[in-house]
Amino acid sequence: MRTERVRSWWGWGWEDAAIGEAERAGLLARLPPHWVADELPVPRVADLELRTPRVDAPESVRPICTVHPHVRAAHTYGKAYRDVIRALRGDLGVAPDVVAYPETEAQIVEILDWAGDANVAVIPYGGGSSVVGGIEYRGDVHAGVLSLDLTRMDRVLEVDRTSRAALIQAGALGPVLESQLAPHGYTLRHFPQSFEFSTLGGWLATRAGGHFAMRHTHIDDFVEALRVVSPSGISQTRRLPASGAGPSPDRLFLGSEGTLGVITQAWVRLQDRPVHKASRAISFGDFAVGLDAVRAIAQSGLDPSNCRLLDEAEAAINAGRADGRAVLVLGFESADHPVDTALVRALEIAAEHGGSVDAKSTQDSVGDWRTAFLRMPYVRDALARSGVIVETFETACTWDAAVRVCDEIRDGVRAATAEICGEPGLVTGRVTHVYPDGVAPYFTVIARARRGGEVQMWDQIKAAASDILSGLGASITHHHAVGRDHLRWYEAQRPDPYGEVLRAAKHSLDPRGVLNPGVLFA
Amino acid sequence: MRTERVRSWWGWGWEDAAIGEAERAGLLARLPPHWVADELPVPRVADLELRTPRVDAPESVRPICTVHPHVRAAHTYGKAYRDVIRALRGDLGVAPDVVAYPETEAQIVEILDWAGDANVAVIPYGGGSSVVGGIEYRGDVHAGVLSLDLTRMDRVLEVDRTSRAALIQAGALGPVLESQLAPHGYTLRHFPQSFEFSTLGGWLATRAGGHFAMRHTHIDDFVEALRVVSPSGISQTRRLPASGAGPSPDRLFLGSEGTLGVITQAWVRLQDRPVHKASRAISFGDFAVGLDAVRAIAQSGLDPSNCRLLDEAEAAINAGRADGRAVLVLGFESADHPVDTALVRALEIAAEHGGSVDAKSTQDSVGDWRTAFLRMPYVRDALARSGVIVETFETACTWDAAVRVCDEIRDGVRAATAEICGEPGLVTGRVTHVYPDGVAPYFTVIARARRGGEVQMWDQIKAAASDILSGLGASITHHHAVGRDHLRWYEAQRPDPYGEVLRAAKHSLDPRGVLNPGVLFA
Questions:
Q1: CA A88 to CA A86: how far, in whole Å?
Q2: Using H for helix, E for strand and C for coil, what is the string for A426-459?
Q3: Spatial separation of the C-alpha atoms in residues B61 and B363, rounded to whole Å
Q4: Average pLDDT for residues A374-399, to the nearest whole number?
Q5: Are the beta carbons of A424 and A411 closer than 8 angstroms?
Q6: Count of CB contacts below 8 A, A vs B?
Q7: Mean pLDDT, chain A, as a whole number?
Q8: How far apart are CA A249 and CA B305, in angstroms?
Q9: Which pLDDT score is estimated for B371?
Q10: What is the pLDDT of residue A318?
Q11: B162, B240, B477: residue with CB nearest A396
Q12: Which of B190, B235, B240 to mutate to test the interface with A (most CBs of A within 10 A)?
């Protein structure tokens, strides 16, 4: 008998992987006791009040559509804190009327044609892991909403061993595509935190950031060619390692977040599985000193595959350190040649910049961090249910602005939570990706929620953090995308004439405005 | 007394660097004697028949405009073979009416406003090194033509040492910007063949390919932020090391070839000057064997900075080899750490794939090649004057297609020249840039011209080569851009819905259609 694991409809991941009673108690014990509220219960799907579907998919695609309440509920929101809270409260007024699971491109074309005629919003769902309101309908001008779930289009269609590339359908979740590449000895090696619950198409549409601290950071750089179905037609780009022929067509669709077309498949660059690996944990007196070392390493041309700097608080919470030092997890890997020399040189640079190689064994620090990293969304859900706001912000900025951005976010979010939540929250920081000319800092805030006011409080904290980033000229997002939650600040970041170009592109590709309305465009 | 070097108005480079009598005789001696015709004389500028300027720049910018015949003649064409021939024949009917040398962005805005009102085509000139008809007006619907030469806007405005980046005005020619970066200890290290005679803005607008065989190949990857003046307004993108906020605005302007706006300045990533260098020449039994070795090196993650494979004919002509072998010039460099280990491993891979390290000293092979490389455009001009067609084609394709693309281009162009020129030309090939998933091959054709029919013959050869590339799904260009000469094949390469998007972008940014009409859009 085969038992399938069940995805949570209201929160992160697998139902059977949710935080259990004992683990929850342990987590809560580390918080100020007055922060902890009674646990929000998970509503039964049968008790959810979902409105009667307002629209009917056309007969020809009805077999691949469903109006099942569990499916509709699960496709209503992404996985931000505000999404989880609303789902737990049964606030599912914007649930899609129907969820479609196309198996062919022709079905997608049919759905888009029908949606245009019937004025139905179509929301490409990806893996549903958006934390920026990317898959939630918030408008009021459409006759209905269809959530387009491509996870049945999840095949690796072709592997080109000579060019080390594969043609993969966009609906493949991370593990699904990796398991098909493994027998060929290849890997895509794109491991965002959401890896298990996000798709190739979602990564492409949101310019996702993966495993690598340097170089192959964004999925953008893995792309040889895209195939995109828009209401106005199908764009198939040519499979090329590089091109100088006009503005890159792929780069228009990368980051288009389902507003310009549905990415159905892509030729992507693969890698051989690494066989040479070397890593170390290095500690620093404080985060700013660590940042300096990381900058020097990032500018050395050594290109570590892993280069995550955790600030003091983050190191304490997620890497089990109690010495108040910042920690850098540094790793090199190669499928071709030993990487020890590179690691030795990087450690030298770190030492020149005040770092000391961790006495604690590398494997422990790295392992602790990795486990904590993948568990984090489950922890977030457990805390959310118990009255604690947990949220993350991320950005990118040039090195000259790095310390200021980190300091101002930390201070500003602490101040904002003091005002919004009645007492300052805990703000921790880390560096997830580095570049020769800059860095992608990532922050977590944990604060006390007021029951019933969680979503509003979250919105206020988000606004405070986003205003700070925007004011400093940092990006509103490095790899979480824009969605609906970042729209206001994205509009400030995007040059106006370019905004008009995007609008024109939208009008050209999706003239009836059915694709993910509200994302990227107000 | 300071003597300024004078740029050739009709051909490549400096007048004083042109091929002299003795060198010319040596070149011609290597060709079949019946290919050589009487040398076309260079017309005196005073004898050129340029039409009377049809339009007058507005008073406010008149001081930065000129109608001097020498300047107008020099701004009429790029530097393709067909350009040189037409210039030598005094065929300058499409000369711009006026050439403007703006010193401020305000002047550019003024010129664009006036051009829109007066229906004057504005052609951003860059350094004038286009080989694809990128700066030549071919239309008939405009009241006049203004060539916009930004070389007076050539300053490095700011250097950010922390982020290792600089804000540079777009009109800076290669040596001009490098000489300003040198005192800071930095370099942009973007060295296309046209380096001396092309500008940062031209590189950005055409997605130029530089020095590096891998990684920092295209100027695209050097860009932090752009500032672009379009008739509809100014786009200033945010200075970021990376971003996931919507489709990249920079990537729309990169490759827009002056059709969507005038790039006025850019924040670009710099590099420390390399201090560790190692290189070798390796020879192979034939080009296909060499390609296999290059592929293995490109997929190793070693990232050589130089990895140029010359085929047998190219090695004979330009690297002074007489043994009929293909030659790989392989180099590593770093500002931080020794690169010997990387070179040793790369040589190991090359040996595993049938390569033998050249007995001839590296420095000679590399030096011979480099000198020949930079001399090539001067040689081309000398041959062009003496009745020989010399032209280059370049492309990019995935590795699985590499051998076929190279073979078909070689055979196809040889067959085309046999038909067009009455006897087959000499076709040589090399690899200029490599990627883990593909390669950029580059071909030179030398063939016998028929006096008076040169341009038509060139067009026919170009069409034959381009049809082959297009039919094989290779890019119509890897780094020479689209211009006017590649337009037909570019349109086939560009997905139709994306073509409509670009048209919409053009209409949005340049509603009166004055910017470089005829490029990218028919």
A1: 5
A2: EEEEEEEEEECCEEEEEEEEEEECCCCCHHHHHH
A3: 51
A4: 95
A5: no
A6: 293
A7: 95
A8: 27
A9: 77
A10: 78
A11: B240
A12: B240
Report the gap between the CA of A280 and the closest CA in chain B (Å): 19
Helices A402-421 and A454-471: crossing angle, nearest 10°?
A: 150
3-state secondary structure B150-173: CCCCCCEEEEECCCCEEEEECCCE
Instruction: Please tell me if residue A404 touches chain B, with a CB cutoff of 8 Å.
Output: no
Q: Which residues of A touch B253 (CB under 8 A)?
A: 247
- Using the Cβ of A414 and the Cβ atoms of chain B, whether some distance falls under 8 Å is answered with no
Candidates A241, A341, A474; nearest CB to B396: A241
Give residues 243 to 262 of B whose Cβ lies within 8 Å of A. 243-249, 251-257, 261
The pLDDT tens digits of the residues spanning A464-508 come to 999 999 999 999 999 999 999 999 999 999 999 999 999 999 999
Contacts of B230 in chain A (CB under 8 A): 497
Asked if the model's pLDDT at residue B374 lies above 70, the reply is yes
Distances (CA, A) of B98 to A468, B52, B75, B116: 48, 10, 9, 16
Q: How many CB atoms lie within 10 A of CB B226?
A: 27
Left if phi > 0, otherwise alpha if psi is -120 to 50, otherwise beta: which for A257? left
Class of domain A156-272 as given by CATH:
alpha beta
Interchain contact, A509 vs B500, CB within 8 Å: yes
Provide the pLDDT for residue B364: 61
What letter would DSSP give residue B422? Answer: S
B345 touches chain A (CB under 8 A): yes
Q: Is A336 in contact with B300 (Cβ distance < 8 A)?
A: yes
Contacts of B117 (CB under 8 A, 6+ apart): none
B323-352 pLDDT, tens digit per residue, is: 999 999 999 999 999 999 999 999 999 999
B322 band by pLDDT with thresholds 50, 70 and 90 = confident
pLDDT, residue A285, reads 96
Q: Is A233–B497 a contact, with Cβ atoms under 8 angstroms apart?
A: yes
ipTM here? 0.96
In angstroms, the CA A91 to CA A110 distance is 31
Residues of A in contact with B209 (CB under 8 A): 244
Does B482 sit within 8 Å of A301, measured CB to CB? no
Q: What pLDDT sits at residue A468?
A: 97
Q: In this complex, is the C-beta atom of B440 within 8 Å of any C-beta atom belonging to chain A?
A: yes
* Model confidence at B111: pLDDT above 90: yes
Query: Where are chain B's structural domains?
Result: 156-272
